[in-house]
TrEMBL record:
<keyword id="KW-0560">Oxidoreductase</keyword>
<feature type="compositionally biased region" description="Low complexity">
    <location>
        <begin position="164"/>
        <end position="182"/>
    </location>
</feature>
<keyword id="KW-0288">FMN</keyword>
<protein>
    <submittedName>
        <fullName>NAD(P)H-dependent oxidoreductase</fullName>
    </submittedName>
</protein>
<dbReference type="InterPro" id="IPR005025">
    <property type="entry name" value="FMN_Rdtase-like_dom"/>
</dbReference>
<dbReference type="InterPro" id="IPR051814">
    <property type="entry name" value="NAD(P)H-dep_FMN_reductase"/>
</dbReference>
<dbReference type="Pfam" id="PF03358">
    <property type="entry name" value="FMN_red"/>
</dbReference>
<dbReference type="InterPro" id="IPR029039">
    <property type="entry name" value="Flavoprotein-like_sf"/>
</dbReference>
<keyword id="KW-0285">Flavoprotein</keyword>
<feature type="region of interest" description="Disordered">
    <location>
        <begin position="164"/>
        <end position="189"/>
    </location>
</feature>
<feature type="domain" description="NADPH-dependent FMN reductase-like">
    <location>
        <begin position="1"/>
        <end position="135"/>
    </location>
</feature>
Length: 189
């Protein structure tokens, strides 16, 4: 399973990025394979065709599990994250990717923001979001036990979805000679 964390915070190496890593480790018992600190992509996000942005998009799109994190800015996710998400094709850009929308905030007033604002964008890009979005207090996100209620309810659904997309990718890998999808062996399921 390929696990990637994405942090859309205007500050590099932010608490948002740290929180995404904590969620990835809590779900998978290991570190993420890739980390995309969106602010590091710089002005390449303002147009199309930047090689570093294209590489980051390819990494996210090839992931089985994608933790997409943002601080809460003006009651929603950040503009820098929006610039990154705009780089993906609508409907297919994150097809086959299981995503977890994660937002950090100062208080409970915006606790529904991951589900109301970030999750719909991820689904529009083709991601599967099988769990409730995750909202964490920016002062307590790293405290022991903070994730326990969410993990108890949603970890198995998230991992099952990510495992099934990973298995589907393996079963439909293109054959080098023809470029046609390899046949899916239904006897293995």
């Amino acid at each position: 399973m390929i696990v990637t964390v994405v942090a859309g915070n205007p500050k590099p190496a932010s608490r948002t990025l740290d929180a995404a890593h904590i969620v990835a480790r809590a779900l998978t018992d290991r570190d993420a394979d890739h980390a995309i600190d969106v602010i590091a992509l710089g002005p390449g996000l303002l147009g199309w065709g930047d090689p570093a942005v294209a590489d980051a998009v390819a990494i996210a799109a090839a992931s089985d599990l994608l933790i997409v994190a943002s601080p809460t800015f003006k009651a929603t996710y950040t503009g820098i994250l929006k610039l990154f998400l705009d780089q993906f094709d609508t409907g297919t850009g994150l097809a086959g990717v299981t995503a977890v929308p994660l937002m950090l905030g100062a208080g409970p007033a915006h606790a529904l923001a991951p589900d109301l604002l970030l999750k719909p964008v991820l689904v529009e890009l083709g991601a599967v979001c099988p769990a409730q979005g995750l909202y964490l207090g920016d002062k307590v996100y790293d405290q022991p036990g903070v994730l326990d209620p969410w993990l108890a309810r949603w970890a198995s659904a998230v991992l099952s979805s990510a495992d099934s997309t990973s298995a589907a990718d393996t079963a439909t890998t293109a054959t080098p000679a023809t470029g046609d999808p390899a046949p899916f062996d239904r006897s293995a399921s």
